[in-house]
Design goal:
The structure is a single chain. The chain is mostly helical. The protein has 6 helices and 4 strands. The strands form 2 sheets. The chain has a two-stranded antiparallel sheet. Strand 1 and strand 2 form a beta hairpin. The longest helix has 63 residues. About 2% of the residues have low confidence.
């Protein structure tokens, strides 16, 4: 009965550790998903960001990939009932936890620089809208996607010298890019279909892009800290399971030794009263014939 209870306990420990590693596989997928999503958002507005803004997102993706492979140690350790692999799993998980905290701190630190950085980059690049294709594409993208126009408003385009090769909208002696148009109306001129802008985006792009990047950095830091909290629970649980596996193995070996001792004692008696005496060997003397008196 005791042996059966021990086996049941070992199976419970094994399945619990498998559940923990399964949770970390899902957590790894979540980390990679969050990191790649934030990286994609930053990539869309990469022209207006510094390169260091991409570091936390890249760091989080790398951590997720590492956790995905580290989870294999937990799975193999559970299946093999190896305390060594389980401890390796917990130690590497602890190191990954430190990296996650560092990534969260970096994300929150860079978050405070977002407003100033975007304000400088937007204002400095606006005059080159008609000069460099990268500036043109970047402004058209954020104005279309974020439903905004200019830095603070469409009036900012009054300081930009227009180019006849680019399509624009004339508003109060100001040429505004067509990407600032909020509503269009289709007209036919000489049997040709022409789209005419009726309404411009009223808001500037600076507040909207700042909010987007600011919230993305906050989400990155919050996600890293939340997952780190889950990891702390997993680390403590993994070390506890490793200790339980070690104790269960020791108990199993002790019971196996007791069974062996009982089997040996069943065939060997250590009592001197029942011990069989050693028989003396019988010596046969050869007969050489009868002697004469």
């Amino acid at each position: 009965m005791a042996q059966n209870n021990l086996e049941v306990g070992m199976k419970c420990i094994k399945y619990m550790l498998l559940c923990v590693t399964a949770i970390f596989v899902l957590t790894s997928a979540l980390i990679i998903s969050v990191g790649t999503t934030i990286y994609a958002i930053y990539h869309d507005v990469a022209f207006f960001l510094y390169d260091q803004m991409f570091s936390p997102a890249t760091f989080i993706v790398v951590i997720g990939v590492i956790m995905l492979f580290v989870s294999l140690f937990g799975c193999i350790g559970a299946l093999k009932e190896s305390t060594c692999l389980v401890n390796i799993f917990a130690v590497i998980l602890s190191l990954v936890l430190v990296l996650e905290v560092a990534a969260a701190i970096a994300a929150y630190t860079l978050r405070g620089q977002v407003a100033r950085m975007l304000d400088e980059n937007l204002r400095d690049s606006l005059p080159y809208y008609y000069t460099y294709p990268d500036v043109t594409d970047s402004y058209d993208f954020i104005q279309n996607r974020l439903n905004c126009c200019g830095v603070d408003s469409y009036l900012d385009w009054g300081e930009v010298t227009s180019d006849q090769s680019h399509e624009g909208i004339a508003v109060a002696n100001i040429t505004v890019p067509f990407s600032c148009c909020a509503e269009t109306r289709t007209q036919y001129v000489n049997e040709m279909q022409v789209e005419e802008c009726e309404k411009l985006y009223a808001n500037g792009c600076l507040p909207r892009i700042t909010y987007l990047v600011y919230q993305s950095a906050g989400l990155l830091g919050a996600g890293a800290m939340t997952i780190a909290f889950i990891q702390i629970i997993g680390i403590v649980f993994s070390f506890s399971l490793a200790t339980s596996i070690r104790k269960a193995k020791s108990e199993r070996e002790r019971r196996r030794w007791e069974i062996q001792e009982r089997m040996i004692n069943a065939y060997t008696s250590l009592s001197p009263d029942t011990e069989t005496k050693e028989k003396k060997p019988v010596v046969y003397v050869p007969f050489h014939g009868q002697t004469v008196a």
